[in-house]
Amino acid sequence: xFQTLMPRTLVLKYLSYINNIFITLGVELMNSFKxxxxxxxxxxxxxxxxxxxDKNNSWYRWAEQGHIKDNTHCIVANDHxxxxxxxxxxxxxxxxxxxxxxxxxxxxxxxxxxxxSEAIEHYKWEIQKLIEAGINxxxxxxxxxxxLWMEDEGAWLNAxxxxxxxxYTEYVVSKLGEHVCDWVTINEPNVYLLIGYVFGEWxxxxxxxxxxxxxxxxxxxAHIKSYNKIHEVRTKMGFRxxxxxxxxxxxxxxxxxxxxLEKRLCKNTDHLTQExxxxxxxxxxxxxxxxxxxPLGKGKYFDFFGINYYTRDIISFTLNPSQLFAKTEVKEDxxxxxxxxxxxxxxxxxxxxxxxxxxxxxxxxxxxGTCDSKDAFRTRYIYDHIQQVKRLIDEGVDVQRxxxxxLMDNFEWIEGLSARFGVVEVNFDTLxxxxxxxxxxxxxxxxxxxxxxxxxxxxx
Length: 460
Ligand code: BGC
Prior knowledge:
There is one protein chain. This protein folds into two domains: 1-30; 40-459, Alpha-Beta Barrel (TIM Barrel), CATH 3.20.20.80. It is an alpha/beta fold and 460 residues long. The protein has helices spanning 2-5, 8-25, 47-50, 58-64, 84-93, 105-108, 117-132, 148-151, 161-176, 189-198, 209-236, 260-283, 346-359, 378-394, 437-448, 453-459; strands at 33-34, 40-44, 98-102, 136-142, 182-187, 243-249, 252-255, 305-308, 312-317, 326-329, 363-368, 399-405, 424-427, 432-435, 450-451. It starts with a helix and ends with a helix. Helix content is 42%, strand content 16%. A hairpin with an 8-residue loop joins strand 9 (312-317) and strand 10. The structure holds beta-D-glucopyranose. Beta-D-glucopyranose (BGC) is lined by residues 46, 49, 187-188, 191, 249, 308, 367, 405, 412, 421. Beta-D-glucopyranose binds at residues 46, 49, 187-188, 191, 249, 308, 367, 405, 412, 421.
């Protein structure tokens, strides 16, 4: 009756509207839903976390120095360097159409200014294999690790890093640009610089806000030069389909009690950890306290807005000036993952909506996933986050892709091999891979571009 009175599209719109009210109210409702046919699903990884076999990078040295919490190492990791084909088979089983991978700079330029053609040929071969398998690569140039020669020259504190990165970009794109149209210049500059230059827990182990800001300026400049270079090289090759962006790690910051002071502190934290990078890397603007003006010119230095979303922080006031008077904690009684990060799917909605309203550019969710060694809540995690994606699309937000972090358990930086983020489980003694239950759910999601009633019945 209802359906005869209203057109089907209107009914669907109405139901989705009602559903969104329930989601907002936090009421548990598990529904089937469908995403647009052209939406793209995939997984994401980073070279250092999976490849193994390279001693020429900052993380190899960091692990050798005994900084990894569980005393594991990145020297073997998943041995992906030797198992590319096996891992592409896994992606095929997961029905992934896109894959975000990174290149190890230290392999490609093992000595300053000297490029290794074998390494770049290996990556070219891997990329061709992916394309043959119907999987489109999104290639990241920098994902937290540096060649040792670069690290020893001061890493990202050295202003020369900007031209080093530009030269590396030019080499890589001239070799791979024929096959790769989608690029991420830098992964999560904020996370890399906060943990490595302020907290001192990652290489190069610095603990200075001044260094953080210096590194931020250099990374912003490096991104802009790299963005321009990728376009320049590919345009000369005759391509017009180049897409370049940054994978920004973005969090929600919410005030603990909702006071005006806490709201101010949320804004400050957002400014210092996110906004300085966003303004710098999207339009070339250096803002206080990184700098001022547009040193490389005002422009548009992104073709998609990449979002890595994991969690939110709750902010309150502290007298501690070294924390800039903002104490961050996890929301009381909230569900958390194995690393204690709050599971907060609505955050994905809030972040995507905020930056889409501001930039009106395509959004790629370049990372989203969770640490769950028992695979106890990952399926639900994926469901909840994709439901938010559906909600965004229904509201006209142009989210085009979702890259799940991560394909398979891997070297989770200082947490080592014991933190498990994979939809594929890895036995690090035998290196055997096995698709988890959540991976089977993900495979069906990627295949149908939908959560069906059968999937809810079977997995949720
Ligand atoms: C990073 C990944 C990391 C993941 C989970 C992101 O910050 O880009 O390399 O493994 O989060 O911690």
